[in-house]
Amino acid sequence: MRILAIESSCDETAAAVVEDGRKVLSSVIATQIKEHIIYGGVVPEIASRMHTQAISGVVDRAVSEAGLGYSDLDAIAVTYAPGLIGALLVGVNFAKGLSMSTGLPLIPVHHLRSHIASNYITHPDLEPPFLCLVVSGGHSHIVEVRSYTDFSVIGRTRDDAAGECMDKAARAMGLPYPGGVNLDKISVSGNPEAYVLPRPRVDSSEYDFSFSGLKTAVINLIHKASQKGEEINVPDLGASYISAVVRCLCDNTFKAAETFGYKKIVLAGGVSANSVLRRRMQEMCAERSMQLYMPELSLCGDNAAMVGAQAYYEFLNGNIAGLNLNACATMPIED
Ligand code: KG4
Ligand code: ZN
User: pTM for this structure?
Assistant: First the structure.
């Protein structure tokens, strides 16, 4: 089954053709980084306009690069939630138009489910059940993936997402957008023990995260240093900060894995590209004889191939939308 998938939840306009949930026939991504860089972050209104300009060409390219025509496709899939509402609406309405004009079924895909599904492309042998740490710009979840379409959230952030914190700390350190990637790069040479940062804990939950205190601690540290005219060592502070975030992510994930009896651990979302997180997860899985699955780097950030992968399993589960499908800015992964 060949699915044409569309993704426009944030700042990438993407389309892909994926066969039977695992084989990527084409994947096109038009990134908006250049447009948002001067503002230091994604400007929703600009994102929506850029999607509108790009979507038609991106979708056409995905179909032609797959060596196919529209008549060779079996379904249209689209990210409908969660994300920036104006951005999501562009993809959803384009997909609805395509579904109507081609007569192909329309498959709605949850953005976080698709991040998890990026692993089905990288690891053809991976099947649920497994435990997944999903870390993106807007979400930090520990999720039980019971089947391809049955999810249960064990832990979540009580405030900021891990990616959002990476971005805000990077900005405070004077690094350009996209903050997380640049923080990762500059911190490679830093000493993670150089700065002492708080170890955030959430009362009454072993698996939930709280990152806002850590973010505020870094911002305060930078402000205090600048008031005193002291230099901040950015690689050292970046490395210390990443190390603190990664420690929280890994500690809670492995606590959950042990309590809920999972031996298969999966990483997903934009922050899964982080070099320290990938290394630490590898070490911790090896120490516990657990199997680790991570998406290849090209599939960590937003793309449409992962949407096509998840859409296949949504289709098999009978999840087909009507033309009244709407975009939603927020939506639990379980729904
Ligand atoms: O999944 P994603 O591409 O978009 C959302 O669904 O939000 O995740 C984007 C987030 C951003 O916050 C970005 O800074 C972060 O992922 N990110 C990273 C790295 N690459 C992307 N954070 C840390 N290290 C990285 N290498
Ligand atoms: Zn994402």
Answer: 0.97
